Amino acid sequence: MFPIKESRFLSGDVKLFRVEAPRIARKRQAGQFVIVRIHEHGERIPLTIADSDVEQGTITIIVQGVGKTTRLLNQLEAGDSILDVVGPLGEPSEIKKFGTVVVIGGGVGTAIAYPTAVAMKQAGNHVITIVGARNQSLLILEDEVRATSDELYLMTDDGSYGEHGFVTQKLQALIDQGRTIDHVLAIGPIPMMRAVAEVTRPHQIPTIVSLNPIMVDGTGMCGGCRVYVGKECKFACVDGPEFDAHQVDFTNLIQRNKMYRDREQESLEAFEADPTHDLEEAHHCHMEQKFPEVGPRTV
Amino acid sequence: MVDKLPPKQRTKIPRQVMPEQEACQRAHNFDEVNLGLTEAIAQRESQRCLTCADPKCTHGCPVGVQIREVVDLVREGEYLSAAAKLREDNVLPAVTGRVCPQENQCEGACVLARRFNSLAIGHIERFVADYERQTGQVGLPERAPLTGKKVAIVGSGPAGLSCAGDLSLKGHEVTVFEALHEIGGVLIYGIPEFRLPKEIVRQEVENMRAMGIDFQTNVVIGKTVTIDELFNEEGYDAVFIATGAGLPKFMNIPGEQLAGVYSANEFLTRVNLMKAYDPDQYDSPIYDCRGRNVAIVGGGNTAMDSVRSALRLGAKNAYIIYRRGEEEMPARGEEVHHAKDEGVQFMNLHNPLEFVGNEEGNLTGVKLVKMELGEADESGRRRPVPIEGSEFVMPIDMAVVAIGTGANPLVQSTTPDMATNKWGYIVADEETLRTNKRGVFAGGDIVSGAATVILAMGAGRVAARSMHEYLETGQW
Predict the structure, then answer these.
(1) What is the DSSP code (8-state) at residue B311?
(2) What is the pLDDT of residues B149-174, one digit of tens each?
(3) For residues B172 and A109, what is the distance between their CA atoms, to the nearest angstrom?
(4) pLDDT averaged over chain A?
(5) Which pLDDT value is given to residue B9?
(6) Smallest Cβ distance to B259: which of A217, A259, A291?
(7) Is A226 in contact with B257 (Cβ distance < 8 A)?
(8) Of B101, B85, B182, B88, nearest to B456 (Cα)?
(9) Contact in structure between A60 and A17 (CB atoms under 8 Å)
């Protein structure tokens, strides 16, 4: 049982939670994630740790409501609890002084890129952050990102805020200006990460992406999250989630992530039609005694 | 009390058969296949025991259950005392009675087996444990006075649970750490409901809680807390590593990345731990097997569990693809029989060369080559050799790779001063299960490689004895 200490929406369907998990808060490094399960009938889903507070014993997770589990999670408030939170999982980001680092966040990916940007800044890098979203209402963490960046570029697909265009256009512009870029980290939707990889490839700029395959346990015991990097099979939960963008087989990742699309849709529709059962379970189920007391000893 | 029959009459009683669900019915549900002995059958079976002066069966049992004494108590109708006697050596009797390969262990050693059929020790054990559970009067053994020593057990599978039970009885304060959200290791995520109902595992764990053992789920040792932190920051006096062999092996053949290809660990974890077979109640999805062709690669118990699960999920055709013959199959005979009765199709002497997919990246078939058995290899089994020109593609929609597992490196990678062998398994002394790191013991599959539930429990008992000695003397 992991109590939620604070929750607030950052944009329409993106919510931030501060969750009590002292052990995880103590150990967590940028780039790592947790697996959560909301209630007894729930599934396990991976979520990146956006921040942590060792003294308060809390971690911060940022959740976009895209399917049943994330929408259910986004209906929880401070005072509620998450049944299971396990972590920190995965390998931490490689943090060192590269020189000039470009951190690119797309949509809720900004929440995942943010802790690495902070760590990169602390390591003495010149941090350029490019944040993109479809429109102004979907931009998150603007103030936080601004505080940790030497340069910040905000991009919207529709031009409703910041500059009009994709994150890749800004990245290309920086390269075309002849800016020295030593390291790129891109986190967001897979097509965005793939596009970034294609922009940096001809210039041989080392580029890292944080992959988001389907996971179950998150500890390397099932291989459900396997991704193919330079023809090699890797488990994103233990070998990643960050990999060399120029080596990743993005097509396979997209195909594997579609495997349960129909079932996910059904599950979401059933939840939207009647969320009461799940909400009740999320609020109460873990309070109950699951098993009867055992009887007296007979020997 | 029932009188003992003279030995000649005892051997005239045929070995009693356990009732089971009809194959045509059970192939479509996840309810337990074996239904358990009735009291009358258990009584009759117990009459067959020759009550040997030096019972070979106990030597055949990796945890040394006092089988003759248990069977005597059953014959006398003292079922609760029989259960208590069982628990002196075995913390999971309802589990081992179901999943042990008794034919190779206690029953294999039974003297009756030489001329007749062995005593059905596993069935009697299961009867006793089930009887006790149904009465709710669990005969937990007495715990020794508290020693003030703290022990951490890493992993809550059979090895960890059995070690925890013994150490707790010795009066040590025991905490079991588990990475998943539920206690039991392979008993929970690996072995399906139709062989081992999860309610039984949960009840055994509750019994252990009642013995004073602390269980902490969602803790990944190596990530959430390291071994060194257990000693230095959390004040543990000794650690037992029992993390198992949970790293799935793939075949590294083309097409293994296609959607629809699972490791057995993933497939079974979704089915068992996440209960994906019950989509109305549970959120975790699984490939929709209904009306589909499903192939499982491998010939062990994991392959049998996977193929029988696929059938129950509605597969039209469920195949076992195994590169050797049925005689070489490592799976228990009982499981192979059950699978056949349920309609599993065995394609022995076939080996996959490649998985074939469509443009969307979904699995559509498997390219197989026929095999024949050649010379015996080092293991004494005849080596399978491909028959040239025999390749063909079989259409399938889903595949499960069940060719074995390796050592999960999570603990080892964050404990660099602990010795491992070239396969990543932890090196531990055979007799004491001590590692090269002071206070750290290791046992079960993480030392031996993938084996059986009861061998892991045996290792847990050995570790408990050895750890107790270390905790008492402080000598390493």
Answers:
(1) H
(2) 999 999 999 999 999 999 999 999 99
(3) 47
(4) 91
(5) 86
(6) A259
(7) yes
(8) B101
(9) yes
**Pair A2, A50: CB distance under 8 Å:** no
Summarised one tens digit per residue, pLDDT across range A249-291 is 999 999 999 999 999 999 999 999 999 889 988 886 544 444 4
How many CB atoms are located within 10 Å of the residue B360 CB? 11
What string of DSSP letters covers A32-86? Answer: -EEEEE-STTPPPEEEEEEEEETTTTEEEEEEE--SHHHHHHTT--BTBEESEEE
- Nearest one of B405, B248, B419 to A238, comparing CA atoms: B248
- Please give the Cα distance from B331 to B341 (Å, whole number): 15
Q: What is the full DSSP assignment across B40-68?
A: HHHHHHHTT----SS-HHHHHSTT---HH
Identify whether the C-beta of residue A50 lies closer than 8 Å to the C-beta of residue A135: no
B247:A37 CB<8 A = no
* C-alpha–C-alpha distance, residues B188 and B168, integer Å: 22
d(CA A88, CA A31): 10
Which SS3 state, helix, strand or coil, does residue A208 take?
strand
Chain B partners of A252 at a C-beta cutoff of 8 Å? 257, 361
Confidence of residue B242 (pLDDT cuts 50, 70, 90): very high
Strand partners, B154: B177, B241
Locus of tokens 């939170």: A85
Q: How many alpha carbons lie under 13 Å from residue A139 in its C-beta half-sphere?
A: 24
Which residues of chain A have a CB within 8 Å of the CB of B224? Answer: 23-24, 27, 86-88
Predicted pLDDT at A284: 66
| Residue B122 contacts residue B100 (beta carbons within 8 Å) | yes
What is the separation of C-alpha A210 from the centre of its chain, rounded to a whole number of angstroms?
8
Q: For residue range A200-256, what is the model confidence (pLDDT) as tens digits?
A: 999 999 999 999 999 999 999 999 999 999 989 999 999 999 999 999 999 999 999
Pick A287 or B81 by higher pLDDT.
B81
Contact between B218 and A256 using a beta-carbon 8 Å cutoff: no
Q: Whole-angstrom Cα distance, residue B313 to residue B86?
A: 36
- Two tokens at B273? 């731990």
| pLDDT over 90, % of chain A | 80
3-state secondary structure of B367: strand
DSSP secondary structure code for residue B34 in this structure: B
Please, which pLDDT band fits residue A297 given cuts at 50, 70 and 90?
very low
| Minimal C-alpha gap between A179 and chain B (Å) | 38
**What's this model's pTM, rounded to 2 decimal places?**
0.93
